[in-house]
Design goal:
heterotrimer; A alpha/beta (285); B mainly alpha (328); C alpha/beta (243); A: 285 residues; alpha/beta; Rossmann fold; 4-stranded antiparallel beta sheet; 10 helices; 10 strands; globular; B: 328 residues; mainly alpha; ABC transporter involved in vitamin B12 uptake, BtuC; two-stranded antiparallel sheet; two-stranded antiparallel ribbon; 70% helix
């Protein structure tokens, strides 16, 4: 499996057979703290890559840098062969790299269906002059609405279609944000903790949907803490710690890496926590 | 003064071109703040540019009425661009500060002796409405009686035109806000980054909103000065801006009929209060007030109403509480 | 032998945040002395709302909450703390500008004389809080703040500890630590009610659990029963762990 994706052995910063995103020397410092220091990383096209690591490792900051929401101190990166460093975030999205946010940005003051419609790109009706001429955008709007409804059904949000997004629970908002990101038909979708707060049974069905994305040719890069999810769907895992990439490889290999276990996975990953021995403390009173 | 007089005056205030001028400015502000979340505290400047632009084009360039209207609009659009391009990339509060300063600067400039040759300085400009009143199709000797208030043909004409403009503005805004373009604005109002992440050029939309809202306000400014055919710098002080805000919030900031309802209620109320207070003072019921102070009291009330609205009912009469937020 | 009074009893609660809209539509829960109770369920089911309703932070419109038999429905949070109920929220749960020790002190500000005794107890469960007592809470990572927040709740010497998603946002190793800590606290005699999104781990450690769905308790049973129930797996747990 590793040979399909990587050229040579799996190691931090290794080259990929068909990379969609290549980043070099990306550094971001906040005062004295170096939040991100990635020498070289390549994201394989058409695969599902998981980015894991402890809190504070720099994963979200790295996302922000790649998508233009933050400026690095130094570094360059290309997407689909085109230079993307310094490009404004809305243009990055238009080029096909769409991201979600760790702290969900479901637009509470819009309804669920309007949130979804907003996600579609190249909308004729969004131009000022065209917006007055309804016939120009009516057909496209209907198509967009149909796409939106089918996605909402997949994400089990169809019953909430007309509700304001603000009335959804935290997990439902996460789902909405992900569905909305998919409306833009991205080439690379970057999901920041997409399943945080989402019910495990629903997570499982959504993972199937993410796998479908892959079969449609979409590349997926996601940050997650749920190792079962990572193991189940990712083709490749990149581990970050303290701003650097410390390990890369197929999930099974990476998760056996002792350093990764110590810093991140924990020794009890596959054990029943109810059976682990705990220390006995006398009650205070 | 009897009850019929009081209500006639209030009724006249409901439909007067001055009220409409404010209503249009409030509609412009609805576009800025209600729909896009832009904090514009200099709406007076946009209205002033409309009034001055029109007057100058008529008096100095000798353009016809349509050219003059266009010039007024272009002035305010240009102003929006000048204000917007440097500030819209920054935080919302910066626009607020810049608009306050810009409006004041503009007012002092047009009133100054340097600008006098063009703008008439502190005396302002007058007699630029000839062509407008010539377009009046109604018979010249027509009078319309609203209770004890009697309106001449020209006064009726301007009221018809004014309200026609309001209706057109509302239709225009209705079409815009129900469209995908309007949807983007709504998203921007709440969270710009979320909208950027979906591929929309947020800066461009904010600039468009600023220009559109400012243009509607400039039409309001033109109507405002047309009724008296005088345009003076003193018209465009901070009073103007804050009355506009009050009307907007009273009626409902993110709605289209809100500014209309708010404007009508506000001015009818102001007139009623003035009349009633005037009677009470004459009758000796308020010994601590002089007749001249009645006008001042009204402004005290404006401030009070604005405060109470923001605290207790920011959505106004017709707004949706779920949609309003003040944290920019 | 008669059953002792439950420590916490929630009876048929109807509650919500916005007027006219109820999130809880008839929800009940019983926690006996020394039990570790879990609350799990799909998004929007009302798990956090139930916990907050017990703690007086959500308007209870119908139903009642009892603490050791005493009615505490809609009682304000500060009164509940005095009665021995401690709540650890999911976010914003420490004072970032204060040190760890000062955060813990805040826990006993109503009974400052007990500080040393309680501090010793808490640091016996969380030794790191003792060794790093002078560190500012704002410089701690998510998992460490979780620990401080729980420690502070324990300073009150609560009879009941309410936890709102203690594992949220934590990496796997920190999540496991958090769950083991909850077990230790419970083992020391504190009754614990916890809302969790990580249903599998929650069920592994709790005595009994309630599964909430659309504001009602849809299922209940011991942790083991629910973990092994195929219907539960299908509806709520998913079987990713076994794949």
């Amino acid at each position: 499996m590793a040979n399909e994706i990587a050229i040579g052995a799996a190691a931090p910063g290794c080259k990929k057979v068909d990379p969609i995103l290549i980043a070099d020397g990306v550094v971001r410092q906040f005062g004295g703290l170096t939040a991100v220091n990635v020498e070289h990383v390549e994201i394989p096209r058409g695969k599902i890559t998981a980015l894991i690591g402890p809190n504070g490792a720099g994963k979200t900051t790295f996302f922000n840098l790649l998508t233009g929401f933050d400026k690095p101190n130094s570094g360059t990166w290309t997407f689909d062969g085109k230079d993307l460093a310094g490009v404004a975030p809305f243009k990055v999205a238009r080029r096909g790299m769409i991201r979600t946010f760790q702290l969900t940005k479901a637009l509470s003051l819009l309804t669920v269906i309007d949130n979804m419609r907003l996600g579609a790109q190249k909308q004729v009706g969004e131009g000022f002059f065209a917006s007055f001429v309804r016939p120009l955008w009516k057909a496209q709007e209907q198509q967009i609405t149909a796409n939106a409804d089918s996605l909402l059904k997949r994400f089990k949000l169809d019953a909430k279609r007309e509700d304001y997004a603000g009335s959804l629970s935290g997990g439902q908002r996460k789902l909405l944000e992900m569905a909305r990101a998919l409306m833009g038909e991205p080439k690379l979708v970057m999901l920041d903790e997409p399943m945080a707060g989402v019910n495990p049974a629903l997570t499982q069905s959504l993972l199937e949907h993410i796998k479908d994305l892959k079969s449609n040719g979409t590349t997926v890069l996601f940050v997650e803490h749920d190792m079962h999810m990572v193991r189940h769907i990712s083709d490749w895992v990149i581990v970050m710690a303290e701003g650097k990439i410390v390990a890369e490889g197929p999930p099974a290999e990476v998760m056996k890496d002792q350093a990764v276990i110590d810093a991140y996975l924990g020794a009890h990953a596959d054990t029943d926590l109810g059976t682990v021995e705990i220390k006995s403390i006398k009650a205070g009173n | 003064m009897d009850l019929i007089s009081i209500f006639s005056l209030a009724g006249n205030a409901l439909i007067s071109p001055m009220t409409v001028g404010y209503i249009l400015c409030a509609i412009g502000l609805a576009v800025h703040f209600g729909y896009t979340g832009l904090l514009n505290f200099g709406q007076a400047a946009f209205a002033a540019l409309g009034g001055y632009g029109f007057a100058i084009a008529t008096l100095d360039f000798h353009w016809n009425i349509w050219g003059s209207i266009l010039f007024g609009l272009l002035c305010s659009m240009g102003f929006a661009a000048i204000l917007g391009i440097p500030t819209l990339r920054l935080r919302a509060d910066y626009l607020a500060i810049v608009t306050i300063a810009a409006a004041q600067a503009l007012r002092f400039y047009v009133g100054s002796s340097t600008a006098e040759p063009i703008t008439g300085g502190s005396a302002g400009l007058s007699q630029f409405g000839q062509e407008f009143y010539n377009l009046n199709p109604l018979p010249a000797d027509l009078t319309f009686n609203l209770g004890t208030v009697s309106l001449t043909s020209g006064e009726v004409w301007i009221r018809i035109v004014a309200w026609a403009v309001v209706v057109l503005a509302v239709i225009f805004m209705f079409a815009l806000t129900r469209s995908p373009w309007g949807r983007v604005l709504k998203g921007i109002r709440e969270d710009e980054d979320a909208v950027r992440a979906l591929g929309k050029n947020v800066f461009s939309y904010k600039l468009q909103a600023l220009v559109i809202g400012g243009s509607i306000a400039s039409l309001g400014g033109m109507l405002f000065v047309m009724s008296s055919q005088t345009n003076q710098p003193s018209n465009w002080g901070t009073n103007f801006t804050f009355i506009t805000w009050t009307i907007l919030l009273l009626g409902g900031a993110a709605t289209l009929i809100g500014p209309i309802v708010g404007g009508m209620v506000f001015f009818a109320l102001m007139t009623l209060i003035e009349s009633v207070l005037g009677i009470m003072v004459d009758a000796g019921l308020l010994p601590f007030l002089a007749v001249e102070q009645v006008a001042q009291i009204r402004f005290l009330l404006v401030g009070l109403i604005l405060m109470l609205l923001v605290i207790f009912r920011p959505q106004g009469f017709s707004g949706n509480k779920k949609e309003i937020q003040f944290n920019g | 032998m008669t059953n002792p009074t439950p420590v916490v009893e929630a009876l048929d609660l109807h509650a919500g945040y916005l007027p006219g809209i109820n999130i809880l539509n008839g929800c009940s829960l019983v926690a006996n002395q020394g039990e570790l109770i879990g609350i799990i369920g799909p998004n929007g089911a009302g798990k956090s709302t139930l916990l907050k309703a017990i703690f007086g932070q959500v308007n209870i419109r119908e139903g009642a909450v009892k603490l050791n038999g005493e009615d505490i429905t809609n009682l304000k949070a500060n009164k509940l703390v005095e009665k021995g109920v401690a709540f650890v929220p999911q976010t914003n749960n420490v004072f970032p500008s204060l040190t760890i020790e000062e955060n813990l002190e805040m826990g006993v500000f109503q009974t400052p004389k007990r500080f040393q005794e309680r501090f010793d107890f808490v640091t016996s469960i969380f030794p790191d809080l003792g060794t790093r007592r002078a560190q500012k809470a704002g410089s701690l990572s998510g998992g460490e703040r979780q620990m401080v927040a729980m420690g502070r709740a324990l300073m009150v010497d609560p009879s009941v500890l309410l936890l709102d998603e203690p594992s949220a946002g934590l990496s796997p190793v920190r999540q496991d630590e958090a769950f083991l800590r909850v077990r230790e606290v419970n083992h020391a005699g504190v009754t614990v009610i916890m809302v969790e999104q990580n249903a599998r781990r929650c069920l592994q450690i709790c005595d009994r659990a309630y599964v909430l769905d659309q504001g009602k308790d849809a299922h209940t049973g011991t942790g083991r029963e629910l973990l092994n129930d195929p219907k539960m797996v299908e509806l709520y747990l998913g079987n990713l762990a076994e794949l």
